[in-house]
Specification:
100 residues, mainly alpha
Length: 100
């Protein structure tokens, strides 16, 4: 019983560190903001409606693909391989919402 309890506690403690279960905003802050807040390497800045409009027009699936697989200077999953595809998609959804 004690082993099980210790295992559960470790899982609960490590889950956020491994990137499981984060919201889109949390993923953005941890893995995307460094480039998308300042426009590093021509990353579209969060909230820049003019820059985001043509990207949003391509559809969410196209944006998900770029975010998951990387493109140009942007690494796959924003450089955080521990993120699930659902978490990356949540970050993209967050960015879309903030940039409409």
């Amino acid at each position: 019983m004690t082993k099980l309890l210790v295992t559960i506690i470790w899982i609960l403690l490590l889950t956020p560190a491994l990137g499981f279960g984060m919201t889109g905003e949390e993923v953005y802050q941890k893995s995307c903001a460094m480039c998308h807040n300042s426009g590093v390497a021509n990353a579209p800045k969060l909230g820049d409606k003019g820059t985001w409009a043509p990207r949003i027009a391509e559809g969410a699936d196209a944006l998900y693909s770029v975010a998951i697989n990387g493109k140009g200077a942007m690494p796959a999953k924003g450089g955080n391989a521990a993120l699930s595809e659902d978490e990356v998609k949540a970050a993209v959804d967050y960015m879309i919402e903030k940039s409409k």
